[in-house]
Amino acid sequence: METRVAARRSLPPLVAQLPFLLLILLTVSSCAAAATSDLVIGEDYVRPPARRHRKALLSLFPWRKKKASSSSSDPQQVHISLAGEKHVRVTWITDDNSVPSVVDYGIKAGTYTSTSQGESTSYSYLLYSSGKIHHVVLGPLEDNTVYYYRCGGQGPEFQFKTPPSQFPLSLAVVGDLGQTSWTTSTLNHIKQCEHDMLLLPGDLSYADYMQHLWDSFGKLVEPLASTRPWMVTEGNHEKEHIPFFESGFQSYNARWKMPYEESGSASNLYYSFEVAGAHIIMLGSYTDYDENSDQYAWLKADLAKIDRKRTPWLIVLLHAPWYNSNWAHQGEGDSMMTAMEPLLYAAHVDMIIAGHVHAYERAERVYNGRLDPCGAVHITIGDGGNREGLARRYRNPKPAWSVFREASFGHGELKILNSTHAHWTWHRNDDEEPVRTDDVWINSLAGTGCIQDSSRELRKILMAP
């Protein structure tokens, strides 16, 4: 069912945001500085001054002129995501309400042998009205295949490649992306790496109530997000909740629809999917997660269904990190960790990847605050290029579980070579070429003594009502 979009307001987008920009400024609070003896400023690396990329910076200004060749019916902000086994969802926006939610596609450029129809939605946020947001699911599709597609029956041709059905599998990972000159560097470096999919553990656009920044973000990431699936979960900057005026996650849910229904979830804020031999779980740090919550019940059910012979790799993404030696956001993930870490430990999760802290950190396998060979490798990668800058202050001495930490922008790459071995690298984005700065081999827990010798009590956690 298509929902008609209300007429756009004539006010410039920035002016339209003024009634609640003041509200945002009044609600911003600053943390008290920790004692100097508890802090380490960076670790061996000092970041140079930021370069300026005029094109990226101009995307932040809503009053820039549109290209004369653009049409209100042309697709904007095109991105794709997985939508169940052998299916992909194409999402785009048009200013023209009459454009149908339809995608023509095929495996040969300019030749479309299949057509899929979908749905559309829109939303209003205070004085802002979105364009028509189209969601169309394509499939079934062949694995590891390039498809050419056209949105809305007209306009330019795009192309994407489906992920493989078996190893090797290459995943790009980036958090807290934003829309700065450093974002541009990070995206350019990701483009240089061969990847099958991108994972983003929250804080996408940094719109923070200013809805036109969702539009500029969609245009900024389209060159990458239209060619490979982007699988995301929400961060604190997606909440956009104004008491008595606007509910939370309205923009995020309308624009970035993930395969939550296919995974049995009741919320777009948490879900799971499988690709090649990996089961990937996207958790919601900003929706209920205690033992009485829907998310907790869903997670138990999802973990109980996993077959580690079919998907030997088990990876979890969330926004607020559980293991963090940076001064920023200390303890913010503790309550979620208390509720859910025993579940994930019982299921023998291989990796837990978080964002939120604007720096990079990799931990050894850890559980319950201590090194544990059967625990998960924890990685914080909230350093995509956000406008708030880097979190440079670390706690000292470094915890025993912390292996590598650096306050720098960059992205990660996880190359899963087979059922037992994966190669993780983190790439600092200072130079024209990404600099590989952290590098480690990770072994899957599937088939190890951790699973074979796990205690009866831990197994009961997943089976308990």
Automatic annotation (TrEMBL):
EC number: 3.1.3.2
Domain Purple acid phosphatase C-terminal: from-to ranges: 376-432
Keyword Protease: no
Record-linked PROSITE patterns: PROKAR_LIPOPROTEIN
Entry's Gene Ontology molecular function annotations: acid phosphatase activity; metal ion binding
Annotated signal peptide: 1-33
SUPFAM superfamilies: Metallo-dependent phosphatases (SSF56300), Purple acid phosphatase, N-terminal domain (SSF49363)
Record-linked InterPro entries: Calcineurin-like_PHP, Metallo-depent_PP-like, MPP_PAP, PAPs-like, PAPs_C, PAPs_N, Purple_acid_Pase-like_N
Enzyme class per UniProt: hydrolase
Pfam families linked: Metallophos, Metallophos_C, Pur_ac_phosph_N
Calcineurin-like phosphoesterase domain sequence ranges: 171-360
Keyword Metal-binding included in the entry's annotation: no
Start and end residues of each Purple acid phosphatase N-terminal domain: 75-162
Keywords, alphabetical: Glycoprotein, Hydrolase, Signal
Reactions that this protein is recorded to catalyse: a phosphate monoester + H2O = an alcohol + phosphate
Classification via PANTHER family: ACID PHOSPHATASE RELATED, PURPLE ACID PHOSPHATASE 18
Family of the protein in this entry: Belongs to the metallophosphoesterase superfamily. Purple acid phosphatase family.
Protein name (Swiss-Prot/TrEMBL): Purple acid phosphatase
Organism for this UniProt entry: Eleusine coracana subsp. coracana
Organism placement in taxonomy: Eukaryota, Viridiplantae, Streptophyta, Embryophyta, Tracheophyta
Gene name, Swiss-Prot/TrEMBL: ga12529
